[in-house]
Amino acid sequence: MSQTLTVLGLETSCDETAASVVRLDADGAVEVLSSVIGTQFAQHAPYGGVVPEIAARAHVETIDAVAAQAMQEAGLGYGDLSGVAATAGPGLVGGVMVGLSFGKAVALSRGLPLVAVNHLEGHAVSARLTADIPYPFLLLLVSGGHCQLLAVEGIGACRRLGSTIDDAAGEAFDKIAKSMGLPYPGGPALEKLAEGGDPAAYDLPRALLGRQGFDFSFSGLKTAAARFAATVTTEAQRRDLAAAVQSAIARQLSERTDKAMAAYAAEHAGQALRFVVAGGVAANKTVRAKLQETAAKHGFSFDAPPLAYCTDNAAMIALAGAERLALGISDPLDAVARPRWPLDAEAAASNPTHAFGRKGAKA
Ligand code: KG4
Ligand code: ZN
Predict the structure, then answer these.
(1) Based on the structure, what is the number of domains in the chain?
(2) What DSSP string describes 153-183?
(3) How many other CB atoms are there within 10 angstroms of residue 316's CB atom?
(4) Can you give the pTM of this predicted structure?
(5) Which domain holds residue 185?
(6) Do residue 176 and residue 98 come from a single domain?
(7) Are strands 157-163 and 147-154 parallel, antiparallel or unpaired?
(8) Cα-flanking dihedrals φ and ψ of residue 310, to 5°?
(9) Rounded distance between C-alpha atoms, residue 64 and residue 92, angstroms
(10) Are residues 77 and 14 part of one domain?
(11) Is residue 279 within 6 Å of ligand 1 at its C-beta?
């Protein structure tokens, strides 16, 4: 790459309307010039989860203002941009179409290249927004929609090692929190409730323990936790159950990461070993601590993006777009919005447990 790239990123795949301007220098230095996130929590809270139709409408209503604010905070005009990057999937397709269409309009009217970014690739590069983490690295992506272990060899070169066969880790946090009467989003609420609780007070199942590979499963834990939730009466019991759930999720994430690290280290013998955890669940302190221990055990460096870049944001989309542009990659203006779009299409196609159902290859 021989020039500085200044890219507008747009993210509308779930319940945040986000826009950001990121600068990627020729030497690889990254600067986030602005990162604006409009959340829709209040609109979805009465329903206990994200309602796709409401999300799509809210994106339409706010994308103009959010993008204008991102440009203004960056102190730039559209004419200063080198390109536009918009999430093109996977996600709620009504929302994805809003950001992608907005990006296409800016690209067309300003004669700029468009990059249709995979949301997962955004999470994959998110730790590179604030730290110098060269490729390759092992990534655990844990969010409300995704739970997977990926060998990230470079931009556009991710290999999926394992994925959830049912719920994503954040989804498990959210659903169990809901069964305990906690507000949406449940992850942070459950973490708060768990403070001071005894994780050993409830015996929760360990899924897929003896099974080959690096897949995750949270449905058994969800059922067991809901059963216990119906029996708790005191505040102390609720605290204990929250602590037990949090610890069970952290344990499964670290056990699978432990196995993946051993395999990854064997494959990358003689190379620097790096581990990154990204996605909303990476905000959880117990999860982070467990993974940090696991990384230390296998001699991996440990990185997690700051909280603002763990959850959905447009800075990670802008950076993924900038890294693609730096490699000479852009997309045509008829790029489509995709509800499902696995980062590693080969792994998704060859593993039929992930090819069907509500989550399908998305997760
Ligand atoms: O990355 P993200 O904002 O959205 C997706 O792409 O899915 O992740 C949101 C998820 C939610 O399930 C939320 O409950 C979970 O991340 N989460 C947490 C915490 N903060 C967010 N889970 C556990 N502990 C937290 N502190
Ligand atoms: Zn996400």
Answers:
(1) 2
(2) EETTEEEEEEEBSS--HHHHHHHHHHHTTPP
(3) 33
(4) 0.91
(5) 137-304
(6) no
(7) antiparallel
(8) -75, -50
(9) 19
(10) yes
(11) yes
Amino acid of residue 242: A
In a domain, 314, yes or no: yes
CB–CB of 16/280 below 8 Å?
no
Ligand 1 nearest-atom number relative to CA 119: 6
361 located within any domain = no
Is any ligand 1 atom within 6 A of the Cβ of residue 280? yes
CATH code of residue 334: 3.30.420.40
* Res. 361: pLDDT tops 50: no
Which residues share a beta bridge with 157?
154
351 confidence band (pLDDT: 50, 70, 90): low
Rounded CA gap, 285 and 192, in Å? Answer: 10
Between CA 115 and CA 83 the distance in angstroms is 8
Q: Cβ(284) to ligand 1 under 6 A?
A: yes
Structure tokens that stand for 81 in this block: 């941009």
Does the pLDDT at position 355 exceed 70?
A: no
Residue in 250, 316, 308 with CA at minimum distance from that of residue 280: 308
List the one residue out of 107, 118, 121 whose CA is nearest residue 333.
107
Q: Which ligand is nearest to the CA of 311?
A: 1
43: phi then psi, degrees, rounded to nearest 5:
-70, -30
Q: Is the CB of 281 under 6 A from ligand 1?
A: yes
Residue 354 has a pLDDT of 45
